[in-house]
Amino acid sequence: MPATPARAQVISVRPATLPAPSRGHDLEVRVTAPITGTELPVIVFAHGFGQSMTGGDPLVDHWTANGFVVVQPTFLDSTQYGLTLDDPRYSTIWQTRVDDLERVIDDLDVLVAAVPGLVGRVDPAKLAVAGHSWGGQSVGMLLGARVIGPNGQPGEDRTDHRVQAGVLLSTTGIARGDLTPFAQEHFAFMSPDFSELRTPSLVVAGDHDQSQLSTRGPDWFTDVYHHSPGARHLVTVHGGEHLLGGIQDYASTATTDESPERVDLVRRTTTAFLRTALGLDVDAWSAVAESIARPAAPAGAIGHIDSKEDHS
Fold it and tell me: E strand or H helix at 129, and its extent?
C-alpha cells in the first residue's frame, strides 16, 4: 500500500485582537499560515451569518496547504455576541462587516506579527478576498459591488484596489422585488448592484440552493456571475445546497448536502483560480478546468464550469 503523502504543517493563532472601541467588541481574527515558505499570498475570508473565525476549516486547511495565509475576522452577527434585531448596531451591521474587512487589510502587518515566525514571509500585494453567503456580499463590496439605496441608486463605492482577486461562494443575488417579506423588512441591504464589480472573481453556486430569503430558485446565487464584468468563471456544484457539500466544518449538523466530493470541487477550483489570478501559477486554472470538463466517471460529474469569453 503506497504511503500517504505528508500534509503541510501550518500554524494558527486565534484570537489576534484589533482594538475597536466604537464597534462595541474588539475585532477578533484568526490567522492560519504554512510554517514554511516565503512571499506567501493572503486570503481574507468572510464567514456567513452567525458564524465566526473558527469556521471554514475544509477550505482553510486546503488553502494553507497550498501556500496561502488565511485571515478570518469574526463579525458582529456571530452567535457568540448574541446581537438581536433590537440592537442599535444591527441595522448597519452589513456596513460594519465591510469596515472590519478594511481594518483587517489595513492592519495586516499587525496580524502577521501575531503569528510566530510569519513576519517577513508574506507578500501583502498578493491579496485576495473570499466569502460565503453574507460573507460573499461583504467581500463583494471590496471587489466593486454596491448596495441599492432607498432612492433606487447604487450607494457608496467601497472598492479596495489592494485586493487583486475574489471568490464568491453561495452569494446572494439581485433583488428584483423577489425578496421574502422577512428579508425585505430585516435585510433590505440585500439589494446589490454588480455592474461595477470589476476585480477578477470566481463564483461558486449550488444548483440545489433554495434560499428562504428569496422567492427565486438556485439561479439567484448565479446573478453575480451574469451581472458583473469582473466575474470570470462560474462553478456550479451539482446537487449542492447552501453549504456546498460541507465547506463550513468537517461535521456540521447544518449541512444537508454532505459530500466530500463537492467540498473537494470547491477546494480545487478556488485554489486554482486564486493561484492563477494572483500570478502564482499561470496554468493552475486551465488545468483544473480541463480535469472537471473530463471527469473520470462520465456520468458522475460533480459539477461544471462556465467561463466568459477571453478570460483565463
Answer: strand 122-132
